[in-house]
Every structure is written in C-alpha cells, then in structure tokens.
DNA sequence: TAATAAAGTTGCTTTTGTCAAACAGATTTT
DNA sequence: AAAATCTGTTTGACAAAAGCAACTTTATTA
C-alpha cells in the first residue's frame, strides 16, 4: 500500500511529542526503582499468566536476553516472581508473579494513575473522552490484532438528539462508498428519517444502536406501520466493525422486539447489491417476496403465519 | 475538573502500548549515534532558532544540566551547533544549529520517516488518515496551547454524500446540549434538509463547510428561494472551534456568494437564544425584521436597498 | 565589597542496555 | 550411541545514558 506523506509527518510529530510526554507519564517508575523494560516484563508476566518463559518474553518484548535474565534475577531475589522448572524441557523455567509481584503492579498502576490524573485534570470531560477515543483509535489501528470484540460494543435503545443525523450520515457516506450511490440516495434516506421522526413513538417504533465508545457504529430499527406489520429499516454496521457478530446481534434485538410487540410480519426493502445483508436475512428466516422486498414470516403469538 | 476512571485506564493502556512502539520508531537514532535526549535537544534547537540557551533547554526539556552540557559539547565538537556569547550576560551562550546540524536533522527525519513508512505500509489509506487524525487529536488535546488556528481549518464548497446527515447530527446534538432542544428540533432540521436536498441545485444553493481534517466542524448555507431573495441557513461552528474566526469566515463566504449571484436580500431565521450568532449577524449588517427573523439589506449589484 | 544567586561545567556514580562467550539440556546426524 | 548442532538461558565485559554534587565563572543584591 502506498503511504501518504502527510500521515508520515503527523506520525513523526506525534512521536516527537509523545517522547517528551512519556517522561512525565513514566516518572513513577523511577520512584519504584524500575526501568521501563522491567515494567514491560512485569506487565507481560501478568498478561501471559502461568505459561510465560524467558524465551517468550524475549520474543514478544524484543528485549535482550542477557538483560532480561538479570531483570528476572532481580525480580526473583525481590520475590516478585517465582520460577517453576519445565517438565518437558530442562532448560526452560515457567515464570509467574508472586502475590507480592501482583501487589507491586497494582501499586504501579495506581501511581501511574495519579500522573495521568494530573495530566487529565485540567481537561473538560468531553476533552477527556475525546482523548480516550483518539488513543483507542491509534492503538486499534496500529495493533496487528486490530479486531474489536463484541465486548467492546455497547447497545442503546433510545434515540438521542443527533442520533438521527448521524445515522443519516452513516447511511449516506457508506452507501456512497460501497454501492456508488450519490446524494440522491441521501435525499431518500433523509425523507425516510423525516417520516420516521415525525411519527416516532417508542411504543411502536424501536431503534437499536451499536456503540463503540460514544460513536454509533451500527443500527437497526423496527417501525410499526400497522397493527400487524412492521418494517425493518436502517440495518447497517460500519465496515470497520463487520464480521464480529454485531449485525446478527442487532438483528436478534430487532426480531425479539418485533415478537414482543406481537407483530406478525416483518418486512424490509433492500437491493440485490446488499449481498451480505441478504444472506443474513435469509439465515434468519426472511424470504424474498417479489421485487426488491424481502418479507419475513414471523412466529406471532397466535402462531398464524402471514 | 473531575477525571473519569475509564479515561485514566485508556491513557494508561495507551502509554503501555506506545512505550513498546517507540522502540520501533526510534531505532533510527541508534544508527546515527544519538540518544533520545540528544534528538530532543536538536529538535528544540531548530524550533527555537537563534535565541536558545542551555538554561532554556533544561527548563523546556526537563533534562539534567550536566548531561545537557555534555550533549552540547559533543554537538559542538561535531560542528552541529555553534555558540555565541551573550553580550548581556557573560555566563550564557546562545546556541544555534550549523548547516551541518540542520542537515543531520533532515537525515534523521528522513530515516525516522522510513521507520514510520514501514509501520504504515500495511495500513489501508483510510486507516492511515484515521491514524493521523487521532494522533492530531491526542496532541491537540494534551498540548497546553490547545488553540487551533484558522490555518488548520480547510473549507469546502461541495456537498458530498454523508455531509447532510452529519450536519443534521451536528445541529441536533449541539442545539440539544446548548439550548436544551429535544428530538423534535431534529425532526424540524430533518425536514429542512429534506426540502433542501430535494431541490438542491448548485447554481442557486451554496453550502460552505469548515473542515478539520475530514471532519465537518462548521457550516453555513445560502439557499436561493427566489430570483431576488436568499435564505441563510445552518450557520454553526462546533464549540471546540469557536472564537478563532471560523464563523466570520463562513459568513464572509456566504455573503460573498450571495453578492456574486446578485441576490438583493438575505434573510435568516433564528431565536433570541443564539446571542453570539445574532451579535455576529448584526456586525455584518443584518437587521431585525420582526418576529424571529433577521433580514439583511444587501448591497446588490444595482445598489438598490430592499 | 561581601554575600548570594544563577548559568554552565566537570568528576563521579548508577542505571540501562548490548554483545559475545559460556553453559546445559534437547535434537539431529552419522 | 557418540558427536555435532541447536536452543534457552546465564554470565562477564563493556558502553552508553542519565543523574548527583561539587565547582567555576559571572551577575545581582544587601
């Protein structure tokens, strides 16, 4: 892939900036007689619980073997870690934190927390959240296993001011990028949102939003059009978040809500271009009903099929 | 201000993450026989051009005096900097980069660039931009002079897919926060956007967007309702970006466009709550015209006032 | 003018990290 | 099965990075 020059510059400046900042954030290490490398070892030991060995640490932290050996030795004399000889390989030792080591890590986290708090203290709450979000983004983009898990995603059922606009934005920009739609499509979306907002009633209409932090990254809605039929709309998952089950989760919520409210039929309209979505609809019992509309024969409370 | 626990955790994890990353990004220093501190000194010398002294460096970089003295001495023997005795104070020396020092910095930037490029190489272009944006955000929030200047803002005249939705989002969420409006207001906004989109025509309608990176942070529109009258709408600057002239700049653009197209009257509708906006309108020649509408007597091409 | 302070330097020390060789157990080769 | 090779870890020697305290020189102040 090609690399954008502006991006390189920004990363470089960020790196410069952060180099000076990290002094500040890591000053608590000196107070506890630890080097940055030693901290990283400690943290890694906590993460990899039970089956870490010196070799693995060398590989994962990129640290020099000799240096690590000494760090570990000092950890051992300070009773921060304990070694357990491997049965399979007489050369290797399994390393684990002792309660004392665990305790030290807690203390370190606590004192690093105070530095951080001092850094954040002058910031307004929104700025703090924006900062956290940006840092999460950086980490997320740069880490190889950049997959987000469902655990990072929260779900919301209420429609707050700004949400409708953001949903419209997501639809407009994503469909433009992925299906080549233009602004006319956004006009259409806008119309549907207006009609929806005008008659919005939480007893008949349900909106489900998948959130990452305070950003909407997925949505679905179940709109009650009549006593018996309901339309599903605005089903979308942001491309960065696809493939981890958010779509299915949203669909489940929507179907459950439709059943709860005793709707007997759910229909939705889509186009043949939405292959992935159509596959998911089919898997969940939707059937094509002519034209571009898919109709779902729902299990209504009275068992009738429509 | 209170500090959110989640934010502290995120910053802490980010710090951990970045500590391991900075090894990678700074490996070029070893190749050039420089320490991180030495690099920071060099960079600072370039920034503070002409009037840096050892004392200032100590204060701004938080580096030890003795250590700095040695770094500077080595720079001098390598002819990377030159010293100039202060006339006012016999103890201090002014430091400046020599052409050779400047050259070295360039080389360093270049080789840091290659590390960065390697880091970015596997990323898709959008991810690269997202990364740059997030890094800019972090840096911006944390740097004391968190003021953005007009230079950081770009302006756009075209309406791209997703823009209308995002504008609606901005209006909905900001007015909710600042004026306590609820979702009904967003419904109204949605209606105006739909009407607008439906009849959008770039020859009569103009939209101006203030962008920071690829985020819309301000907007204004001039909608041609008749041959002679035009309505100004969607005037808004995101609160984080207020007070640096973005609003005035948008207003200028809008008025200029209205004049260009020979509209003789610009009107806009607002509420008394929008005090700052109203002050700006008045300053730019708008006059109240009864009710909640302000009408602007424009200088049309034929000089008539309406 | 003596006392004190500030800017910068130097000597000494500790900490941090690197490199190469050594060592011991595991694996492969002959 | 012994020799050779490989792998995970340790040790010794060393160099670079950074901090501390004493010291020199020039300014400022009482």
UniProtKB/TrEMBL annotation, chains A, B:
Coiled coil (UniProt feature):
none
Q: Which residues form the HTH marR-type domain?
A: 4-140
Cite a single Pfam family from the UniProt record: Acetyltransf_1
- Residue ranges annotated for the N-acetyltransferase domain, each copy included: 167-306
MF-aspect GO terms: DNA binding; DNA-binding transcription factor activity; N-acetyltransferase activity
UniProt KW DNA-binding keyword:
yes
Specify the domain of life of the species encoding this protein.
Bacteria
Query: What keywords would UniProt list here?
Result: DNA-binding, Transcription, Transcription regulation, Transferase
* PROSITE patterns assigned: GNAT, HTH_MARR_2
Q: What is this protein called?
A: GNAT family N-acetyltransferase
* Organism from which the protein derives: Chitinophaga tropicalis
């Amino acid at each position: 892939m090609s690399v954008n020059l502006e991006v390189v510059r920004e990363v470089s400046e960020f790196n410069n900036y952060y180099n000076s900042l990290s002094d500040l954030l890591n000053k608590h290490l000196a107070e506890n007689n630890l080097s940055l490398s030693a901290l990283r070892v400690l943290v890694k030991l906590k993460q990899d619980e039970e089956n870490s060995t010196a070799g693995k640490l060398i590989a994962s932290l990129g640290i020099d073997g000799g240096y690590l050996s000494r760090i570990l030795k000092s950890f051992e004399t300070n009773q921060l870690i304990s070694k357990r000889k491997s049965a399979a390989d007489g050369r290797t030792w399994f390393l684990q934190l002792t309660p004392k080591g665990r305790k030290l890590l807690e203390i370190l986290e606590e004192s690093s927390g105070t530095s951080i708090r001092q850094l954040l203290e002058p910031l307004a709450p929104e700025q703090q959240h924006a900062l956290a979000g940006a840092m999460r983004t950086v980490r997320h983009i740069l880490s190889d296993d950049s997959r987000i898990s469902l655990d990072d995603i929260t779900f919301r059922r209420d429609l707050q001011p700004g949400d409708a606009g953001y949903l419209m934005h997501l639809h407009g920009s994503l469909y433009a990028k992925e299906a080549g739609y233009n602004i006319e499509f956004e006009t259409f979306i806008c119309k549907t949102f207006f009609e929806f907002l005008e008659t919005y009633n939480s007893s008949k209409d349900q909106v489900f939003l998948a959130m990452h932090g305070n950003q909407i990254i997925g949505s679905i809605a179940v709109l009650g059009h009549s006593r018996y039929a309901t339309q599903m709309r605005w089903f979308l998952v942001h491309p960065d978040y696809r493939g981890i089950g958010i779509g299915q989760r949203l669909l489940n919520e929507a179907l459950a809500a439709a059943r709860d409210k005793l709707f007997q039929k759910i229909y939705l309209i889509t186009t043949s271009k939405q292959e992935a979505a159509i596959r998911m609809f089919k898997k969940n019992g939707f059937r094509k009903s002519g034209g571009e509309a898919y109709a779902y024969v729902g299990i209504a409370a009275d068992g009738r099929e429509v």
